[in-house]
Amino acid sequence: MLLQNFDGELDLYRVREEDQHILSVLDNVQRILNSRAGSLSHLPDYGLPDMGLILQGLPAAAHGLMSTLANTLLKYEPRLAAINIELLPQTQPGHLEYVLDMQLKEGEKVTFGATLAPQGKVLVRHLRRQNYLSKP
């Protein structure tokens, strides 16, 4: 459900109507990835596992996390039909960078970037963010 603004206090009226759906998906993906599995008793697999454990298991854990990311997002973001995740080369110690290529159920394709920081924070961004997502 769209409220009056997106994450980061971006006002709804500043985003073109055709792009609001994508930003809503981005907000929900970020919300899911910033939640920790087990924090909701009625949805024990909602969110990601403890990031401290993931970071201790690098580099092998970075590849294993890809299936967790895909399964969690497909289960809890109802607008996703498919997702392909690619691990990018590590540029900062303790940070993981992923590309999330997503197929929405309406047929639209969208690509997000996700950065997982050592503190457990996940930043999700649209990789085509110019002019609030509109195609050139």
Automatic annotation (TrEMBL):
The record, for InterPro entries, names:
IraD/Gp25-like, TssE1-like
Task: Cite the IraD/Gp25-like domain residue spans from the record.
Answer: 24-104
Protein's name in the database? IraD/Gp25-like domain-containing protein
Q: What is the lineage of its organism?
A: Bacteria, Pseudomonadati, Pseudomonadota, environmental samples
